[in-house]
Write a structure and sequence with these properties.
Length: about 150
């Protein structure tokens, strides 16, 4: 059985491997050193909240990373669920839903107004997971992005 806990800097090596797998899933090139540097900065600067799932022997099996935002209209914190990944060998065990439950608890604990996320239209797993975890597809708004 997996348990969920907040990441520590001691998890950096194992977390970097999971994070690299997540990036490769989204068609990015593998770069474990850059992944490690990116995650180390987020953890040390307290710029995100990362929860990990781990086995009884503390093998990391998945993670979720959230970034703090604010809703001006609701005048409250809003969390961006930016990254969610479970090692393929551990999928189908409910780990994603456990990670999401911890994200929802974080919203309660920080008096936030909710969670926001996006996923690729081609992410069949995610597009089934999120509605089953209580998320609603927002068809009322257009989302735009500008990239360098």
């Amino acid at each position: 059985m997996n348990h969920i806990r907040k990441v520590t800097i001691q998890d950096l090596e194992a977390l970097s491997l999971l994070f690299d797998g997540y990036r490769v899933f989204y068609k990015q090139g593998s770069d474990i050193d850059a992944a490690k540097a990116f995650l180390k900065a987020r953890i040390e600067k307290n710029e995100s909240v990362i929860f990990v799932s781990a086995t009884k022997t503390e093998q990391l099996t998945g993670f979720v990373q959230l970034y703090p935002l604010f809703s001006s209209t609701r005048m409250k914190r809003l969390w961006l669920l930016n990254d969610l990944f479970v090692d393929p060998t551990f999928r189908g065990q409910g780990i994603s839903k456990l990670l999401i439950a911890n994200c929802k608890q974080l919203c309660h604990d920080t008096d936030a107004c909710g969670l926001l996320l996006e996923t690729a239209k081609t992410n069949d797993i995610g597009n089934k997971l999120y509605p089953s975890a209580g998320f609603e597809l927002d068809s009322d708004h257009n989302y735009y992005c500008w990239n360098l």
